[in-house]
Design brief:
alpha+beta, Alpha-Beta Plaits, 3 domains, three-stranded antiparallel β-sheet, 5 helices, 7 strands, rod-shaped
């Protein structure tokens, strides 16, 4: 009958629609599976990248630590190479044409008058002005003594030399000078008696370093 035909047609249409839905669902599931595999792949790559970044950071940290250790050793070596040196401020008579020999003679005259009359040219390995000549200032003089013992003796009499118009300072590498400057600032802010020795500050029984 006509009614039965319509029912069959409706069922066929419904079955077709269901089949289309199933087909679409299968396609969607297939696409989701592909996307899932891609996500897994991306996550795997991301994990590898994170691992490589972690390893790179560890390498960089190790290199930085090695560089810091090497720089510290270089600074120590440089300071040791300067241990017989002293820097003199207030050595008058600076001139553009002044020779190392003339500079050395001025240092000998100052030291023989204020420190030890037995000091001669043999007591000094070399002495010369630091920096470029300028009409409006007197350049400091760096002196390398023939022995650490003599250098230490001169340094111990720095107050005598200062009273005579000449200031004496030890010669250190840049890193040590910066550390001593910071330690000196710290020491003066503590309102206590302190001593600054090489790259350490002492207040009572406590020692400080600048890091």
């Amino acid at each position: 009958s006509t009614r039965s035909v319509k029912i069959e047609e409706g069922q066929c249409s419904l079955i077709q629609t269901v089949n289309e839905i199933k087909a679409n669902q299968t396609q969607i599931e297939s696409k989701i599976e592909v996307i899932g595999r891609r996500i897994d792949s991306v996550e795997s790559v991301t994990t590898d990248i994170r691992k490589e970044l972690t390893e790179a950071r560890e390498v960089i940290k190790s290199v930085q630590e090695d560089n810091a250790s090497l720089q510290s050793r270089l600074d120590d070596f440089e300071d040791r190479s300067r241990r017989e040196n002293l820097i003199f401020h207030g050595v008058t008579g600076d001139s553009r044409s002044e020779t190392w020999e003339q500079t050395g003679s001025k240092i000998i005259e100052i030291l023989s008058r204020s420190v030890d009359p037995q000091i001669t040219s043999e007591s000094i390995d070399r002495a010369h002005r630091l920096g470029y000549f300028s009409d409006d200032r007197c350049r400091p003089v760096i002196v390398k003594f023939a022995s650490y013992k003599l250098k230490d003796k001169v340094l111990s009499l720095r107050s005598t030399l200062k009273n005579a118009g000449t200031t004496v300072n030890e010669d250190f590498c840049l890193a040590t000078r910066q550390a001593r400057k910071k330690l000196l600032q710290f020491g003066t802010s503590q309102n206590a008696t302190f001593k600054l020795r090489y790259n350490k500050l002492f207040i009572g029984q406590t020692s400080y370093i600048y890091d």
